[in-house]
Amino acid sequence: MRQIIRRFQTVLLPVLGAGAIGACPLCWIGSASLLTYLGLGAVIPIWRQVAFGMLFIAGIGFLLDFRSHRNIIPLILLLLGGILLYVGRYIFLSTWGAWPIWGLGGLLVLGAVIYNRRLFKR
pTM above 0.70? Predict the structure, then answer.
């Protein structure tokens, strides 16, 4: 039983954290046009809450990962990157002048995912 729990912590938990994050920033840029193309333009006004929910789920996944490897750096990178993504995308209303803010946030989130995954490969 102990081996099953350990296997769950080392294999599935990083995927849960990275999966929620990977779905979030990568789809933000084309989300409005894709949703409109699919006839789901009515979803666009609530997309902010969906994106915030994905970041929240990713935070829970990274918190569970922290319990396994006891390294706080990926969680801090995720939180900083998530805040920058959210502020750059929704507070500054996605203007292209705000791309350094959400671009840096995306890089921090990507770095958190890669660093978190490497901690489990050791």
Answer: no
DSSP designation for 100: H
CA separation for the pair 25, 110 (Å, rounded): 9
Q: Are 68 and 9 in contact (CB under 8 A)?
A: yes
CA 109/CA 80 separation, integer angstroms: 8
Give the separation between CA 91 and CA 42, rounded to whole angstroms: 20
Q: What are the extents of the domains in the chain?
A: 2-121
Q: Which residues contact 78 (CB under 8 A, 6 or more apart)?
A: 17, 21, 58, 59, 62, 108, 109, 112
DSSP labels for 14-52? HHHHHHHHHHTHHHHTTHHHHHHHTT-GGGGGGHHHHHH
Q: What is the mean pLDDT of residues 84-110?
A: 80
Mean pLDDT of the chain: 75
Per mean pLDDT, which range of 12-26, 78-92, 105-119 is the poorest? Answer: 12-26
How much is the pLDDT for 44?
66
